[in-house]
Amino acid sequence: MPSFKLDDREIPFEKGDTIIKAAWRLGVEIPHYCWHPGLSVAANCRMCLVEVEPPPGGRAMMLDILKWDATKNDYVPDRKPKLQPACQMQATDGMVVRSNTSENAKQARAHVQEFLLVNHPVDCPICDQAGECKLQDYWMSQSRMGKRMRDEPVHKPKAVPFGDKIVYDAERCITCTRCIRTCDELAGDHMLDLRERGNKNEVVLAPGRALEGDYQLMVEHVCPVGALTSSHFRFKARVWTLKESPSICTGCATGCNTWLDVDPREQRAYRLRPRDNLAVNKFWMCDDGMMTYEGQHESRVTRAAVGREGSRAKSAVDAAVTKAAESLKGVTGNHVAVVLSAQHSTEDNFVAVELAKALNGRLYLSAKPAWRGDKILRNADQNPNRSGAVAVATGATVGTLKDLVAAVNASTVNAVIALGGHSDVDASSLTGLGQLPLVLLASHQTALAAQASVLLPAATSFETDGSFVNAKGKAQSFKRALRPEGDAAPGWELLARLGRAMGLDLAYTRLRDVRAALLARAPLAHPEYTPAAPASEASAETAPTA
Ligand code: SF4
Ligand code: SF4
Ligand code: FES
Questions:
Q1: Which atom of ligand 2 is least distant from the CA of 274?
Q2: What is the DSSP letter of 282?
Q3: Global pTM?
Q4: Considering every ligand atom, which ligand is closest to the CA of 280?
Q5: What rounded mean pLDDT belongs to the chain?
Q6: Got the DSSP string for 476-490?
Q7: How much distance in Å is there from the Cα of 192 to the middle of ligand 3?
Q8: Residues 13-27: what's their mean pLDDT?
Q9: 204 Ramachandran zone, left/alpha/beta (phi>0; psi -120 to 50)
Q10: Which end of the chain is less enclosed by CB atoms within 10 A, N or C?
């Protein structure tokens, strides 16, 4: 593989890589504002300047300059190497690049930084970006200069709404055009533009346009400074009070990788951000996915309850589990329906299948109805784990909720144990289920919750470790970020407790036991499953070299 030297480190690169991209791939940062790995190169901020040594025998590109000479108390002619933008310059084999080891590059960055702050309001104390702002970071690492300009800074429009999700502050904007390129290149719609020149330069809505569509929040996400803020997060939290956890979006079957930011003091979710995964979502998420965190604390089932709606009484989880087991006593054979959930983790569904096997029950699947997909990220299936739920059934027939309603009407099912219970059928058609023992494990009030005879509080994917399998069959795990609300517990744990209360052999008490069984029985749905190398590859690896 070709490589070049950056400071004292060897950086391998792929054909077509720029210096900054090859370094980024290795986790080496060259300071930058306008460059973004998922966007085209604009090379307008000049923060990424580096010194490139001429090839042996070659001639360095030099600039004529005036340099201050203290002994002469005057400027004297001098020359210095012409610096190159690392975001635009292609890497070539054997090239020698100096970034942190070049005084010229360091000085240039300090001056770019000073220039960007000349008219900046420096309103960090009330800026949502404070704590994760590139202007702050690079002032600390590249500049630390006091402001030399004494004139009144140029004032520009503040708090300009760009649609109903994004607010723009032109005084904080460094006109890097990342937001404009995101509209053009991700959404494929030129909704934002630049107007004026020099210190009057600002981002505006393109003539006759509004900021709209499913990827508006990405313009805020790519803004390296506090110029674009999102209405849902604006003035809600300081980022240094938040803690990030790796999670998977529950919005659809794409399974975008996310960071969930929570305030551990309040045990509250504050935002979701894309977590880069080149194989799944690259650097992006859609707006609906980013807003799924809002549902975390709404309409939750936090306590167990026994009895139908209207005569329902709150209960301790243990007592409700005992009650549920009693109500299911005697209803075995294939008259028991176990409803899997395309919204719940693979682990929850796996234990539900184990329970169904032990009861010789029939399997069904509850899911949210289809929504608007697109060719960018959004999958038409609004469920994060249809593939995982089906995979753990290991070939058994899995009916839909519509099939379940038909089976109940035909009296072939006379008891139901259900997970989640989101419904893609009309809620009124579920009323027949309200005549049967219906044990529901749910994190939120769902269409089935109104019909349940026993309701058990299940943890959400933010409150428990687990995994989903996306539409392309990729199993991905997520981590617990919040304490379960109220008495909520992981779905797999509640199902195992219910099974034991019914006298069944469901010994799962730890997630690792569930995962081990999952690996043995449905390995493709296990997030850490790696297929064994084919025999031909294995022998190629061990074959002696000629
Ligand atoms: S609003 Fe942000 S992303 Fe857009 S040009 Fe200004 S600084 Fe760059
Ligand atoms: S595309 Fe799907 S998985 Fe990705 S952010 Fe949107 S809703 Fe979530
Ligand atoms: S990152 Fe802006 S010029 Fe290179």
A1: 5
A2: B
A3: 0.93
A4: 2
A5: 94
A6: EEE---SPPSTT-B-
A7: 20
A8: 97
A9: beta
A10: C
Residue 180 CA: nearest ligand 1 atom is: 4
DSSP string, 423-483: -SS-GGGGGGGGGS-EEEEESB--TTGGG-SEEEEBP-TTSS-EEEE-TTS-EEEE---SP
Is the beta carbon of 254 within 6 A of some atom in ligand 2? yes
Q: Which one of the ligands is nearest to 293 CA?
A: 2
Local structure of 169: helix, strand or coil: coil
Distance, CA of 120 to chain centre: 31
Distance of CA 501 to the CA centre of its chain: 38
For a ligand 1 pocket test, name from 225, 230, 283 the mutation site with the most ligand atoms within 8 angstroms of its C-beta. 225
Predicted pLDDT of residue 546: 36
Contact present, 12 and 103 (Cβ < 8 Å) = no
The pair of structure tokens assigned to 411 is 């009296």
**255 pocket-lining for ligand 2 (C-beta < 6 Å):** yes
pLDDT at site 534: 63
Instruction: Measure 531 CA to ligand 3 centroid, in angstroms.
Output: 41
How far apart are the CA of 293 and the centre of ligand 2, in A? 12
C-alpha neighbours within 13 Å on the C-beta side of residue 153: 15
Distance of CA 215 to CAs 132, 159, 221, 274, Å? 21, 20, 10, 12
The residue whose two tokens read 């998420």 is: 285
Is residue 383 over pLDDT 80? Answer: yes
- Whether 48 has a pLDDT exceeding 80, the answer reads yes
SS3 245: strand
Q: Answer for the pair 305, 313: CB distance below 8 angstroms, yes or no.
A: yes
Q: Which ligand is nearest to the CA of 157?
A: 1
Residues with CB under 6 A from ligand 3: 32-35, 43-48, 85, 87
Residue nearest to atom 8 of ligand 1 (CA): 176
With the most atoms of ligand 1 within 8 angstroms of its CB, the residue from 160, 228, 229, 283 to mutate is 228
Q: What confidence tens digit (pLDDT) does each residue in 157-179 have?
A: 999 999 999 999 999 999 999 99
Q: What pLDDT score does 535 carry?
A: 54
pLDDT category, 57, cuts 50, 70, 90?
Answer: confident
Confidence of residue 269 (pLDDT cuts 50, 70, 90): very high
- Contact at 8 Å (CB) between 204 and 268? no
Q: Which two tokens stand for residue 285?
A: 């998420």
Q: List the beta bridge partners of residue 337.
A: 362, 416
Tokens 């080496």 — which residue?
A: 28
Q: Which protein residue's CA is at the shortest distance from atom 4 of ligand 1?
A: 179
Query: Where residue 543 falls among pLDDT bands split at 50, 70, 90?
Result: very low
Q: Which amino acid would we find at residue 359? A: L
113 Cα to the center of ligand 1, angstroms:
15
Residue 294 tokens read as 């809002």
Amino acid identity, residue 460?
T
